[in-house]
Amino acid sequence: MARRGSYAKGVARREEILESALDVIGRKGYQNASLKEIAEVVGVTPAALLHYFGSKEELFTEVLRKRDEHDGLDPSALSADDARGAFLDVIRHNTEVPGLVALFSRLAVDAADPAHPAHPYFLDRSARLRESIADNFGGEQQPSALDPDTLARVIQAVSDGLQLQWMIDPTVDMPGIMAALIDALLPPTAPGP
């Protein structure tokens, strides 16, 4: 019985660490968020952080998973218009958390190495995102000159590229450019009879 309580406390502490890391990285940026500072916010040592996550890379990968959970971008149950709006809302929200955008971009590059702890996360996330885009932005209800898979890859590539441009030049209008691209790729369908 004590073991179950200990496990629950460990899960709760892990969640607390993730929430604190999300906050610290979102506010201070990826480069300015040290393990020491995250540990201090939670009231543990940096060594304790590594006890829960194994490495800094694993902690940061889990922070991105937690961010995805908070964003709640699962347009599979939405109409095409609602899915478009939800996707653009996430892009808008990203402009409010530059530290998390930097973390995502840096880990995405590092995760190109199959041995990196974030590699499976990025493979899975990318596949789910493209599937969601293909299901909601392509197909018979919204015909496009591109097949749904190609459409999804183009939208994902532009979204990721816009994040890099925005990190260099914060005046880049990520949601506006993405909305214009989606409108260009998916012209409105004529209303039925």
TrEMBL record:
Keywords, A to Z, come to: DNA-binding
Q: Which residues form a coiled coil?
A: none
Q: Which PROSITE patterns match?
A: HTH_TETR_2
- Keyword Transmembrane listed? The answer is no
Q: In what residue span(s) does the HTH tetR-type domain sit? A: 11-71
Name the DNA-binding stretches: 34-53
Protein name per UniProt? TetR/AcrR family transcriptional regulator
